[in-house]
Each structure stands twice: as structure tokens, then as C-alpha cells.
From TrEMBL:
Record protein name field: Cytidyltransferase-like domain-containing protein
The keyword Transferase belongs to this UniProt entry's keyword annotation: yes
Gene Ontology molecular-function annotations: transferase activity
InterPro entries, sorted: Cyt_trans-like (IPR004821), NAD_biosynth-regulator (IPR052735), NadR/Ttd14_AAA_dom (IPR038727), P-loop_NTPase (IPR027417), Rossmann-like_a/b/a_fold (IPR014729)
Pfam family, one: AAA_28
Transferase listed as a keyword: yes
Protein species of origin: Deinococcus puniceus
Domain called NadR/Ttd14 AAA: residue spans: 165-323
């Protein structure tokens, strides 16, 4: 391993779209050899689904400032040239911006062929890391072409950004919990249980408005955890969401906290798909549920809420197996 401090100031420039294990290796090598390292997230056009601040945060989560004080993430620079413009245009732009920022690296770290010319433009040494992609056989271009198939080369928190959530809704005893689990197992991914049941049973069914906010926040935390879990693949299936929790808050306490309203409003964009389980299964009493007539009323409230919010949804019917096939067909569209 090269001795620390071989270079005074290392520079890394890249799209980091997305940040992957090859980028991590590049930054690690630079940190091993430099007293300090500047990383510039650079692309024009930027990537709408993963803008530069998000990509910088991905890097910082792996290399937190408290553990890597020598790593500096540079800000966005004004009006960079288009990615399609000649390398010479980019080199001149980089030199001008760095001069303006009073940044003068003595080493440029890349895994790319352009590294020699860029380093020469800056009066620095080019340190090439894994140019053949032998250590980490992946590139950003390959990942953007098949993000889910190549997910093994992404950090969990990065891949979680590309995982899509599917909400499974329905009144009591409409099979949503069973369907949520069945979908996760059928599609080989993670699923999230109904966190409200945990709180409801813990409190012996006596809930206050604060409990419903706890339920909504806890459920979202479980979703985020599932999106980062080792077994996740493309989808996370979620047994209910905050808008249904809002309904229960009003049904059981007559009111709801403003924070819960905000979480319910966010459901419209948080989930890629919303499934509504039809009440065509036999009602099963588990000691906590109401009767069939109440189930019908609950289902009506959920439909009304979806309509009022303008939330698109797909109703699934029939047996668990039939519902799974309906959802698979939906997700394959």
C-alpha cells in the first residue's frame, strides 16, 4: 500500500451516476496516498432522478466527515460544458474553475483514458486506478442500463434510491397482509408488515392521536429499512400507509395531528403503485377486528380518500394466487 501523504492534494472528477463500488475504490486509493482529496461531482446535463446534491450525499454517507476530514466535496460550478463537448473544452473549464477556487492538485485520480491529458492540463500527476475494471468490473454506464441487475455493485443506501414502493391497502380482513407477504416472496424481494398492529396490541387497543403519528413514522422507517435490506430487488411491498393510518386516527380518536396529515399527503408520490384489496374474501375474526358491516364502511372510507387525493390505484380480487398474478402483470407493464 502506498505510504500516506505521497501527494499533497488529490483530485477526483466524475459523474458518480450512480456512486458505485468502483468509485469507492477510487476514493479509497486517493485517501491512502494524499493528505487531502477533493471530489467534484460533475455532469451536464445533470441526472434528474439523482441530482448532484444527492450524489454528493451518497459519497458522504460512505466517507463521513468525522472519519475522513481530509475528503472535501466540491460544490456545483456554474455553466459547465455539455458532456458531449470535446475533452479539451472540459479540461479548460476544469482548470479555470479550480483556479478560481484556488485549488491546485498535484495528483489526479481516475480510471479513465482522459486522465493523462487532464492531469497534464493541471500540472499534476495522473494516478490511474483499475482502468481495466479488473477489481470492480462495472461502470456508471453499465449500471444506468441495468440498475437492478447490477445492484451488487451499489451500496445499499444508493440502491435504495432506485427501489420502488408498492402500497397494499384495504379494510380489515381483505387479505392485504397475506398479499403483501405473498408478493414479496413471489417477486423475491422485501416486504413491510403493518406496524400499526404492533402499537395497537402493545397499547391493548387504547390509542391516542400521538400513537397514530408513531405508527406512521414507524411504518415509514420500516419501509426505508426494507429498501436497504440485502434481499431487496426492485420493489418493496408495504402493508398499508399513512393515509390509512390517518383514517384510523379519526375513526378511533376523532382527530389527527397535523404531522400525520402531512405524512398522508406524501403518500400520493411516495408509492409507485397502490393496490386496493377487494373485500371478496371471507371475513376472519382475530380478536381485534370489527364485523363484516364495519369492513364495508372502512373500505368505503379508503376508496373515498384515494379519490379525494387523486391517487391512482389498482383493485385486486380473488384468491391470493390470483391477486399475485394480477400484480405481476401490472408491474411488468
Amino acid at each position: 500500500m502506498p505510504e500516506p501523504g505521497l501527494y499533497s492534494h488529490g483530485l477526483i472528477i466524475g459523474k458518480f451516476a450512480p456512486f458505485h463500488l468502483g468509485h469507492r475504490l477510487l476514493i479509497q486509493r486517493a485517501l491512502e496516498q494524499c493528505e487531502r482529496v477533493s471530489v467534484w461531482v460533475y455532469s451536464r446535463p445533470d441526472f434528474a432522478q439523482m441530482p448532484s446534491p444527492l450524489r454528493r450525499n451518497w459519497i458522504r454517507e460512505v466517507f463521513p466527515a468525522r472519519l475522513f476530514p481530509g475528503l472535501h466535496l466540491l460544490p456545483d460550478a456554474p455553466s459547465p460544458p455539455l458532456n458531449t463537448e470535446p475533452d479539451a473544452t472540459h479540461r479548460a473549464y476544469v482548470r479555470a474553475v479550480l483556479d478560481g477556487w484556488n485549488i491546485h492538485p498535484d495528483a489526479v485520480f481516475t480510471s479513465e483514458a482522459y486522465g493523462d491529458a487532464l492531469a497534464a492540463e493541471l500540472g499534476a500527476v495522473h494516478v490511474c486506478v483499475d482502468a481495466a475494471r479488473a477489481t470492480v468490473p462495472i461502470s456508471g454506464t453499465q449500471l444506468r442500463a441495468d440498475m437492478h441487475g447490477q445492484r451488487a455493485y451499489l451500496e445499499p443506501h444508493v440502491y435504495a434510491h432506485f427501489v420502488q414502493r408498492v402500497a397494499v391497502l384495504g379494510a380489515e380482513s381483505t387479505g392485504k397482509s397475506t398479499l403483501t407477504r405473498a408478493l414479496g416472496e413471489s417477486l423475491g424481494t422485501t416486504w413491510v408488515r403493518e406496524y400499526g398492529r404492533d402499537v395497537y396490541e402493545r397499547e391493548n387497543g387504547v390509542l391516542m392521536p400521538e400513537h397514530f403519528l408513531e405508527i406512521a413514522l414507524g411504518h415509514r422507517a420500516l419501509e426505508d429499512e426494507a429498501a436497504r435490506a440485502p434481499g431487496v430487488h426492485r420493489w418493496v411491498f408495504c402493508d398499508t400507509h399513512a393515509a390509512t393510518t390517518l383514517m384510523w386516527s379519526y375513526l378511533l380518536t376523532g382527530t389527527a395531528l397535523p404531522e400525520l396529515h402531512a405524512l398522508a399527503d406524501a403518500c400520493r408520490t411516495r408509492y409507485t403503485h397502490t393496490l386496493l384489496c377487494a373485500p371478496d374474501l371471507p371475513h376472519e375474526q382475530d380478536g381485534w377486528r370489527a364485523n363484516t358491516e364495519v369492513r364495508t364502511v372502512q373500505q368505503g372510507f379508503i376508496r373515498q380518500d384515494l379519490g379525494t387525493r387523486g391517487s391512482a390505484f389498482t383493485e385486486v380480487t380473488g384468491s391470493v394466487e390470483a391477486r399475485v398474478e394480477q400484480v405481476r402483470a401490472l408491474l411488468e407493464q
